[in-house]
């Protein structure tokens, strides 16, 4: 049993209403369960495979989900980078290992399943790339048409390739992601498409399972800190919401310090935390190499600020150079391939550790959100091209010398 509740004024709505913002105050909605009525134990969960659907009692879908086997992603111990930073308990949860290569799949399995249960006939989103790749794939699996709006020239090649190949109707706008989101929201309201950006409360339910899995992979222990790259701020809000539910159920007895990392050229949440603002000031011209988090007006900011403040967490910004350096370090020192936005979380921890702003004994989990192959152009720009030689052994030996 659950209902939709406004995160700001508490107004409630029936779960089958197609609604994204509160009719009374215009703020976002969230899914509220009757947690007293939830009948499941941690032992029962632990008997099921590690996946989004291990936690189905805390998800809104009732029928058979539209699934591509999402979740169950690896949690890696970053021994080498951790050693350099003096952090013996530094981990990365690799969300790039999901079916379309990002954490969005956790959200889309739930969001597209709900679209089908609610009888919606077309799904839509705006995207910096990953949301569109994921929605296109899940819409294909669910047999439902899909429309995506992208900021022209600002989406990594791998992500566009995915949206196109999965059969979405792809439109590029001459404007940034924030404008694309406004446009698609308007389109969905006026023409009855189902909006599957992070304003959709059901989609975020799937993403909260990142936190559930992390704790299960740590043998039931809560990490001291969870670090996430922040763009539209849905993921950090979702993970916090899920962990609060586990706390209310008595499955955990504390929360990690939720820590958000943004790019220096796109850091409205960091500024709101640093300046102790109640309401975030949007940035009109966000810019960063980490195009996935090139977002100036994060729609979930209100929830993200609560998550960070209520847990004693923090927010920090990293430069593009710091992001790319960490992308290379993860690849070369740990064997972990991630896209630039994902490297931001670990780059943020490097910065906080070097500034002495975190306790070196903390157990820290960085969520690395998308796969290296999402943005091959940024990878190739950083690496030496292959050496081309004549096809004979002497040439090979001389090239290797
Ligand atoms: C790879 C990647 N990392 C991080 C983010 C930021 O997540 P959120 O928008 O939920 O803050 C996104 C996009 O949203 C993304 O695609
Ligand atoms: N990085 C995101 C931006 C959109 O965020 P959403 O969570 O609101 O869908 C993307 O991949 O498009």
TrEMBL record:
Family matches, as SUPFAM superfamilies: Tryptophan synthase beta subunit-like PLP-dependent enzymes (SSF53686)
Record bears the keyword Amino-acid biosynthesis: yes
Pathway(s) this gene product operates in, as recorded in its UniProt entry: Amino-acid biosynthesis; L-threonine biosynthesis; L-threonine from L-aspartate: step 5/5
Cofactor: pyridoxal 5'-phosphate
Residues that bear N6-(pyridoxal phosphate)lysine: 104
A Gene Ontology biological process term: threonine biosynthetic process
Keywords per UniProt: Amino-acid biosynthesis, Lyase, Pyridoxal phosphate, Threonine biosynthesis
EC number(s) per entry: 4.2.3.1
Reactions performed catalytically: O-phospho-L-homoserine + H2O = L-threonine + phosphate
Top class in the EC scheme: lyase
Residues at which pyridoxal 5'-phosphate binds: 130, 231-235, 369
InterPro entries: Cys_Synth/Cystath_Beta-Synth, Ser/Thr_deHydtase_PyrdxlP-BS, Thr_synthase-like, Thr_Synthase_bac/arc, TrpB-like_PALP, TrpB-like_PALP_sf
Location of the Tryptophan synthase beta chain-like PALP domain: 66-370
NCBIfam families: PRK08197.1 (NF006050), thrC (TIGR00260)
Family the UniProt entry places it in: Belongs to the threonine synthase family.
Protein name: Threonine synthase
Gene source species: Methanoculleus submarinus
Lineage, top ranks: Archaea, Methanobacteriati, Methanobacteriota, Stenosarchaea group, Methanomicrobia
